[in-house]
Amino acid sequence: MAEAPEETVVHDELKFANDSKMTARDVSVYYGAKKAVDRVSIDVDSHFVTAFIGPSGCGKSTFLRCFNRMNDTIDIARVEGDIQLDGENIYDTRMDVVQLRARVGMVFQKPNPFPKSIYENIAYGPRIHGIADSKSDMDRIVETSLTRAGLWNEVKDRLDESGTALSGGQQQRLCIARAIAVDPEVILMDEPCSALDPIATAKVEELIDELRGRYAIVIVTHNMQQAARVSQRTAFFHLGNLVEYGPTEEIFTNPRADRTRDYITGRFG
Amino acid sequence: MSSAVPQDEQIGRGPTAWHSEAMRRRVRRRYARERRFRALGLLALTIAAGFLAFLLITIVSDGWRGFQRAEVAVEVDFDPARLGLSEADLQGPNAQAMLNRANFRALVRDAASEQYGSATMLSNGAWLSVRDEVRGDPELLGQTKRLWLVAAPYVDLLAKGHIDFDMPPERRGVSAEQISDYRQLRSADAVRLGFNSGFLRKANSTNSELAGVWGAFVGSVLTILVTLAISFPIGVMTAIYLEEYAPKNRVTDIIEVSINNLAAVPSIIFGLLGLAVFLNFFGMPRSAPVVGGLTLALMTLPVIVISARVALQSVPPSIKDAALGIGASRLQVITHHVLPVALPGILTGTIIGISRALGETAPLLLIGMRAFVSDIPGGVTQPATVLPVQIFLWSDEVGRGFVEKTSAAIMVLLAVLLAMNGVAIYLRNKFERRW
Amino acid sequence: MSLGGFALVVLVLAIASYAAARMRAAAFGRADGARLHSRPVYHGTWAFVLALLPALLLVSVWSIIGGNIVASQTLAQLPEAARPAAGIARETFLGELRAVVDGTIAAAFDPNVAAAVPIYRQTQSQWTLLIGGLAILLALIGGGYAWMHSKADFRARTNVERIATILLAVASLVAILTTFGIVLSLLYESLEFFSRVSPLEFIFGTHWSPQTAIRSDQVGSTGAFGAVPLFWGTIFIGAVIAMLVAIPLGLMSAIYLTQYARPGARKVLKPLLEILAGVPTVVYGYFAALTVAPAVRDFAMSIGIAGASSESALAAGSVMGIMIIPFISSMADDSLSAVPGAMRDGSLAMGATPSETIKRVLVPAALPGIVGGVLLAVSRAIGETMIVVMAAGQAANLTANPLESVTTVTAQIVQLLTGDQEFDSAKTLSAFALGLVLFIVTLLLNIYALAVVKRYREAYE
């Protein structure tokens, strides 16, 4: 793409944010020769839920995966630009990707519990990172994580059962609990409800709302209602560009960019 | 939802101290483990590849000598009187019989004795090539010609440098006399290492310097032709039946189970089957390629059926539907549309199955294909052996000269297998289609 | 005329029937203006099939069983004194007889054989004439029938297709016949064996020395058939030593190939393993016997183990393990690839290193598939013959020392059935009993392993 990207519309409230947990500057992602994300700059605030919306193929998930360097696992993917977590460049050679991913957790589109017991699913992260000192310490971490994910009461009597035996919604909350267990600072959610039924979706949305404030949360969704329900900040992506970024209410009631308005009102997507 | 946990309570014991020295050490240890694990994986592959390389190098470094043989120069006087042959005999209708009757053995022995004092440095079969000379050129009769004749095994060993002179004489394998004989030949420039053409032209022999693989090679070809002639049509027909015709019933299930199980039956069991059924029950001839081919065909059949089924399954149903839609019958759809598309896949599977059969030894031992066969087999019912069995037989021979022959025969076998697999890969690449 | 000549005549008749029926059908089409149900080529094919198939069936059945009938009739015509005894003598006699008749050898050594040659020739030619004549008759009837019945609305194509279907179905029965052939021949000979040696002794006895003596008064002439040392040797080499080599190497190779190697490297390394799988077992056996076994012995000597055998379980087992690597590797490769990518992503996103992900998530998830693959590999290893024949030795030792020589079921089968033997001696029959055990064990292992693998595949579909 030779021409300059269209100017991103950033609402004033967000322009001078100084409480940013993560900042991205001029981030581009290439899949081989194809440019999937084009020079995106954004600040993620630690106190709010930020939603990335846009039609499928707009690069929002690809961009999200840059925040914990999951694009590293794809051989042909290449990331340019600068992403910082608390002022540290996460693509710096001194940054340890293992620690980064513990600090920036991720929840995937399809629930992916490990084929282990519920207890072991939660204990996995603390164990590999050496967070728990003792069995009782681990027990407490498991209980706290499951409680925070709103799953404790449902599974406390069957912690030895396989995580894959749970229902879809429970599995997704188990995955959120698993991410919480290593005490991350940021949680990335890549369309976490797209594989769930409406009731399970409601529960997960409720959970996201409860987790707000404790963790910086970034959620990718193609469901605009969901973005409106759970987020305080919304970024609209289109064709690899960040078109508009502002408070959720503003974006949905008074979008400033034409493309955002067209998308919100359902003209494309 | 019951979120009873107070807002400020952190998981565990407060925020994880990612930057603490202890945590840094831990991460370093984890990365070291990661590197070790990765290196282990590479090591495993290296061991496997290294073994393969070691095997090939050992065999080639032993085996290339098998394509060479020591030859001794002998002035041969083709004296008609001594041979009991006249020019007229060779022109006449009984030339072959006359040649066979002539005493070339004595002629050669005497010629060598005259020149070197004895004929021990020549192979027992050296005179055969002298006779071939005369057969090829009757004019030689009455003339004298310097010929390079096959040397005795000890000359071969010495010429190839296999004898370690530091060993005590009694363990060297050659006597002091033989060594001095050899040195004498050397100084007379009457010994050389030549290409062992007999190795690729002759059949087995009890003399290592005369033994060849051609007989076993022909036996292998005959056996494999029988295998192919039986297993390919039956295998493809079975696959077509199972994929396109078979109703879902008990019999079909039994056929499927049989095929899957036969694919896993150890090859030696097929040898027992061949022995009990073909030899003892039907009274077919022992050691014959036809029985070996039948036995291997039963062994190869499941491989062909399974790969042919996979090939048939990969033909998109849209092609079949299109042909059926314009009124083609089921048989026409198969012969006109399905088979041509599936054929490369079927052939690839067949070659893989056949090359496995070509390298198979154990079942053939049981049906008597380990017999000593010094003739090149002329048909599928005549006694024969095959390349792998020849390798097995030679590996058991005590003669020092058979070691390099065994390796050389392995080289021939591997070359044939490599060529077959090359064809399979070529077919796969050339006709690979993506739907 | 030989049987082949008669077959040729039948073929010519069939082709003639094809041409005749085809032309007749074409003539119908032209003359009556009636619409033919099938194209003339199908009428022709139908006639061809009718003329050829029954005759061909007769000829091929005869060529399979004919030899035995002619042979026994010939023997029956010989005077009592000239008749060979049953068993090996009869085999040799017939072998020589056939060789003379075929012209493979110029003259018979045994005068009785020489006497039998003309009788054999005469019997054979009588039968050939009878069968050949019958075949030609069948061909004529078949072709004529098809010709007479061909008319415009004859459904020749339907009939041809039906025949084709039947042929295909018959071909697929060969697999069943083979299975039955194996089971019946093994069972039959084994029952014969167990009528002489108690099955209990065979299965639980610990002394194996089947060398039945040549003279009946020789010491140890009875032979001992306790197969436990063989079973142990088979398990020791195939399921213990070979697997100790193959499982770690195969599994780590698969892990490296699927998880670490770049696509370019994988393109080179995978065929390398396939080459390892394509090397004939006799080559491995030769290598084990000539290179590995002496190395193992020298090593044992150098660390002070006197009397180390030059044929050792370790040499055979480790080479067999190398041979099995590609097998385990490809099974593990399949199993690891079947684990959903989401599992791997999930673990990596937790901050696990790739090796932690492999060890704690991927391998446990793929374990049923890997175990199934290992069981298949064991079944293949215990059925492997040439390596153990060439490198493990023939001594039936009941030992756990890998430096000693042990023998296996397959090595004994080869040992017992090669060389000169009386066919129905206990020694020979015991090979079939061993084969039966091997067959049953590998079959059970395979069925179980395939069920495990299948259940595992379904879990991730």
Automatic annotation (TrEMBL), chain A:
GO terms for biological process: phosphate ion transmembrane transport. GO terms for molecular function: ATP binding; ATP hydrolysis activity; phosphate transmembrane transporter activity. InterPro entries: AAA+_ATPase (IPR003593), ABC_transporter-like_ATP-bd (IPR003439), ABC_transporter-like_CS (IPR017871), P-loop_NTPase (IPR027417), PstB-like (IPR005670). Residues 22-264 form the ABC transporter domain. Signal peptide: none annotated. It comes from Pacificimonas flava. It comes from the Bacteria. Transmembrane segments: none annotated. Gene3D superfamilies: P-loop containing nucleotide triphosphate hydrolases (3.40.50.300). NCBIfam families: 3a0107s01c2. Keywords: ATP-binding, Nucleotide-binding, Phosphate transport, Transport. This is Phosphate transport ATP-binding protein PstB. The lineage of its organism: Bacteria, Pseudomonadati, Pseudomonadota, Alphaproteobacteria, Sphingomonadales. GO terms for cellular component: membrane.
From TrEMBL, chain C:
This is Phosphate transport system permease protein. It holds the Pfam family DUF3708. Keywords: Cell inner membrane, Cell membrane, Membrane, Phosphate transport, Transmembrane, Transmembrane helix, Transport. The chain crosses the membrane at residues 6-25, 46-65, 127-147, 167-188, 230-251, 272-293, 299-328, 361-382, 431-453. One of its GO terms (biological process) is phosphate ion transport. InterPro entries: MetI-like, MetI-like_sf, Phosphate_PstC, PstC_N, RhesusRHD. It comes from the Bacteria. It is found in: Cell inner membrane; Cell membrane. It is a multi-pass membrane protein. Residues 232-449 form the ABC transmembrane type-1 domain. Belongs to the binding-protein-dependent transport system permease family. CysTW subfamily. The lineage of its organism: Bacteria, Pseudomonadati, Pseudomonadota, Alphaproteobacteria, Sphingomonadales. SUPFAM superfamilies: MetI-like. GO terms for cellular component: plasma membrane. Part of the binding-protein-dependent transport system for phosphate; probably responsible for the translocation of the substrate across the membrane. PROSITE patterns: ABC_TM1.
